[in-house]
Automatic annotation (TrEMBL):
PANTHER family: PROTEIN MALY (PTHR43525). Belongs to the class-II pyridoxal-phosphate-dependent aminotransferase family. MalY/PatB cystathionine beta-lyase subfamily. This is cysteine-S-conjugate beta-lyase. Its EC number is 4.4.1.13. NCBIfam families: C_S_lyase_PatB (TIGR04350). One of its GO terms (molecular function) is transaminase activity. It comes from Photobacterium sanctipauli. Residues 35-384 form the Aminotransferase class I/classII large domain. Keywords: Aminotransferase, Lyase, Pyridoxal phosphate, Transferase. Gene3D superfamilies: Aspartate Aminotransferase, domain 1, Type I PLP-dependent aspartate aminotransferase-like (Major domain). Its cofactor is pyridoxal 5'-phosphate.
Length: 389
């Protein structure tokens, strides 16, 4: 069994949020719309993962399941060999998805009315889960110069001085595509340590650092900066397993980890999906080479879009992401408001994630999902030119 990244699969009528639920989620119902919004990709999972799942299904018994030695070993080996980080097996806690785990941490570490910082433009679900838990989101806008983003540490410190309790940190960053440097992360962690702020680092995009760029986990921080740290990760983005809900929350602090495990138990989250564990284990054990091929293909898609915009839509600005397959495209030079911009895109048959949904400094941007066969990207670029050319 092999994977062809060029093969175009029909995902309609498969229960896909990206393809089948645009009308319900966005109010857009045309069959001719090309979805470039939700951040999952249109490739099959690695062949070894599919084979492992098929074998597990043939076993035919799906009773209560726990994490095996193979599961833990797959995770720790992956971090050791892929990212040169030694993780103690005891640090690993397992949750049915990154967002549920972050939500429970917010409940555990803060009280109603407390402030939580997120860096914007940023993943809108951080804001959603915080506000649904009656916490207050404080935006720490990233600094942008010619499409390159950096952190505003002075403003972040003022947020902490004002009493924020938690920073939800996105590493690598969705949507701007930065893979943060070690020095940048140390600066963040120093501030968290100084002001007693919990650092929750969502690193779900870490395995998709592009060629010539490096993902550096917050688990690389000096030991004295790890006592207020939680790192959330999963195999889902890299290996196309988003609906097989399983994630790992890696917590070096023993007391914090024990408190979190009690919180999971209080929610009845002490049994795990056997197929999700099977898929994640197989991905980490067998699919390094497959992932490298995928990243090469994604880089080619990124390069194609960059060349297309430079030649055909020079009024737009696009800086290539350092990690992930999401393109953050600056459309402000068009002079359109967000409603007008979206209307032009939809009229041309392309559905993007609108930048305004990523915070106040996302207005005028769109986010495009490049995790697709190149034929799909070529079609999307044609529609983009019809919309904005």
């Amino acid at each position: 069994m092999t994977t062809s990244f060029d093969h175009v699969y029909d995902r309609r009528q498969s229960g896909s949020v990206k393809w089948d639920f645009m009308e319900e989620k966005l109010g857009l119902g045309s069959d001719d719309l090309l979805p470039m919004w939700v951040s999952d990709y249109d490739f099959k999972a690695p062949p070894a993962v599919i084979e492992a799942l098929e074998s597990r299904i043939q076993h035919g018994i799906f009773g209560y399941a726990e994490r095996s030695d193979d599961y833990y070993q797959a995770v720790t080996n992956w971090y050791q060999h892929q990212h040169q980080i030694a993780i103690d097996r005891q640090w690993i806690t397992t949750v049915h998805g990154v967002l549920p785990g972050l939500s429970m941490l917010i409940q555990m570490l803060t009280k109603e009315g407390d402030s939580i910082v997120m860096q914007t433009p940023g993943y809108g679900s951080f804001k959603k889960i915080s506000e649904f838990n009656q916490r207050v989101i404080v935006e720490n806008p990233l600094l942008e110069v010619n499409g390159h983003y950096s952190m505003d540490l002075d403003h972040l410190e003022s947020c902490f001085q004002a009493g924020a309790k938690v920073l939800i940190f996105c590493n690598p960053h969705n949507p701007v595509g930065r893979a943060w440097s070690f020095d940048e992360m140390v600066a963040i962690a120093d501030l968290c340590d100084k002001y007693g702020v919990w650092l929750l680092s969502d690193e779900i995009w870490g395995d998709l650092a592009m060629p010539n760029h490096q993902y550096i986990s917050a688990l690389s921080l000096p030991v004295h900066l790890q006592h207020r740290l939680v790192v959330a990760t999963a195999a889902s983005k890299a290996f196309g397993l988003s609906s097989l809900r399983i994630s790992n929350f890696i917590i070096p602090n023993d007391g914090l980890r024990q408190q979190f495990v009690r919180r999971l138990d209080a929610h009845g989250m002490d049994v795990y999906n056997s197929l999700a564990m099977c898929a994640a284990t197989a991905a980490y054990q067998t699919s390094h080479s497959w992932l490298e091929a995928l990243k090469g293909y994604l880089q080619a898609n990124i390069d194609y879009l960059a060349d297309f915009i430079a030649k055909e839509l020079p009024q737009l600005r696009f800086n290539k992401p350092e990690a992930g397959y999401l393109a953050w495209v600056d459309c402000k030079a068009l002079g359109l408001d967000d409603v007008e911009l979206e209307a032009k895109l939809v009229e041309a048959g392309i559905v993007a994630s609108m930048g305004a949904g990523f915070g106040t400094n996302g207005s005028g941007f769109i986010r495009l999902n490049l995790g697709c066969p190149q034929a799909t990207l070529i079609e999307a670029c044609g529609r983009l030119k019809r919309a904005l050319g």
